[in-house]
TrEMBL record:
Domain DUF58: 49-252
PANTHER family assigned to the protein according to its UniProt record, in alphabetical order: BLL2464 PROTEIN
InterPro entries named in the record: DUF58 (IPR002881), vWFA_dom_sf (IPR036465)
Protein name: DUF58 domain-containing protein
UniProt superkingdom: Bacteria
Length: 287
């Protein structure tokens, strides 16, 4: 069953797929497609439907020429989901529930494009109970993704992202990485280095209540994103401004790291929108 919250979006990849299976992306294999490749004699590629009369008349050896095209192929698509403790944060919506919506939409979008899809979840390690190999089995993917609504581990980190590259294809793939990225920057850089052969789309899940809607004056409870420990803080305007400045500095630091690896981040603070995902790919598909 396909959940109502899965909203498909349109996407494209910037490379030619090496797959031999028919799909909607530019490929390196010759076959049925729209990207012109070359002309060859009919004896080498006996397909009279591709007859090129103009080149045949120009051929000094008087051989019948046919046009070759690159076949449109499939590409592997992954949704990589952070299940560390900070993803349990709930402001307008629990971060993990928003991640579940995005992952389901990635699965449905890949299915609509005829691509193969895999879901990988991690916290301090890759969680194989929430991980699926590449396949066209949409309903199986939806069942695993929907099961995240019951996941509630709080005191756990996200070091398992370093194991994720072991679960990715050897062929270049589209990897949509869903997280709040409340991780040390050296860990982030190490993970991006390990996945550098792939096209990474970082979807950054923040919530306005984390830093924009803090109390202006009075006591408030802060929760450590990874340990889950509570801490009572007396807020005043100066402290509130420090929180805002810290998050803005973090935003710029994340942008700098991601852009260094040619993967512009998509910050998603409000509710999930498939249109925002489509607009992202329209803007950055050629990178």
């Amino acid at each position: 069953m396909i959940p109502e919250y899965s909203k498909p979006f349109t996407y494209a990849v910037s490379w030619k797929s090496s797959s031999q299976h028919l799909g909607d992306h530019r490929g390196t294999e010759r076959g049925l497609g729209f990207e012109y490749r070359s002309n060859v004699p009919l004896v080498d590629y006996p397909d009279p439907r591709r007859l090129d009369l103009r080149q045949t008349l120009r051929d000094p050896y008087e051989q019948i020429q046919v046009r070759l095209y690159n076949q449109d192929n499939t590409t592997p698509v992954y949704a990589v989901c952070d299940l560390s403790g900070s993803m349990q944060y709930k402001g307008q919506q629990r971060k993990l529930d928003k991640a579940r919506e995005i992952a389901a939409s990635v699965a449905l979008s890949a299915f609509n494009m005829g691509d193969v899809f895999s879901f990988i979840a991690y916290d301090s390690e890759v969680l194989e109970d929430y991980t699926l190999p590449l396949s066209h089995h949409l309903h199986q993917a939806m069942e695993v993704i929907d099961a995240l609504k019951e996941h509630s581990h709080r005191r756990v980190g996200g070091e398992g992202v370093l194991e994720v590259p072991q679960f990715l294809s050897q062929s270049r793939s589209l990897v949509i990485w869903i997280s709040d990225f409340h991780m040390p920057l050296p860990l982030l850089e190490q993970a991006l280095n390990a996945m550098s052969r792939h096209q990474i789309v970082p979807v950054v899940l923040w919530d306005a209540k984390e830093y924009r809607q803090l109390p202006k004056f009075g006591f408030g409870t802060m929760i450590d994103p990874e340990s889950g420990e509570n801490r009572t803080v007396f807020f005043r305007q100066a402290l509130r401004e420090k929180f805002l400045a810290a998050f803005e500095a973090r935003r710029e630091a994340l942008k700098e790291v991601f852009l260094r690896f040619d993967c512009p981040p998509l910050f998603m603070e409000a509710g999930y929108s498939a249109d925002i995902m489509s607009a992202y790919f329209e803007q950055y598909a050629s990178l």
